[in-house]
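Anyone able to model this chain together with zinc ion?
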Amino acid sequence: MSRSSQHAEKHLVDRIGWMRAAVLGANDGIISTASLIVGVAAAAANQNAVLIAGIAGLVAGAMAMAAGEYVSVSSQSDTERADLALERKELRDNPAFELDELAEIYVKRGVDKATARKVARQLMAKNALGAHARDELGISKITTARPVQAALTSAASFSVGAAMPLLMVVVSPAYALVPIVFAASSGFLALLGAIGARTGGADILRATVRVTFWGALAMALTAGIGKLVGIVV
Ligand SMILES: [Zn+2]
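re: yes, here you go
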């Protein structure tokens, strides 16, 4: 493999990580806010009430995404840190055992014993903790957790997604609010699904149909429940 293609691959991995998080956040924003809007509108609320509910949904959703992401990535980060601290201690206290351990990992991957020992020795001479983190614990630079960054990314992408159906509420005439929000949000979801699939190298049609179907189902269910509650209340 040539140098330049290796370089391109590494960047693709980086981009999938970021794009994936952003696309998922925006997806959540569209689906939950559009469902909320359609549900409240179906309960025969006026346009102002629908808009207020939608904005509240955007803020609440963005906060929930940020908090959830922060907690989950922090705990992953704590686990990684604890693992690295333990590994550092083991490397200091028992380097011979650690060399055997690393060589054994390479043997299990199909490297012959002599070569595995040689590779392990050379890698540990350069950066023992790095070699153990990567090959024993599976912690690489890419997977190293960054909680604040993850929280901000999810909150921002959720807000961008949520803004799309909200914008539709503002520009739609009151009598056509539900069908316009429904159709436009399905369109946004399809577009995002296509972008996500393209970035990740997945089948574009299948990904687009999947995300649009589940989004439309969520909106339809919420609209149905809104309608029922609207009749009862
Ligand atoms: Zn180790």
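The radius of gyration is 25 Å.
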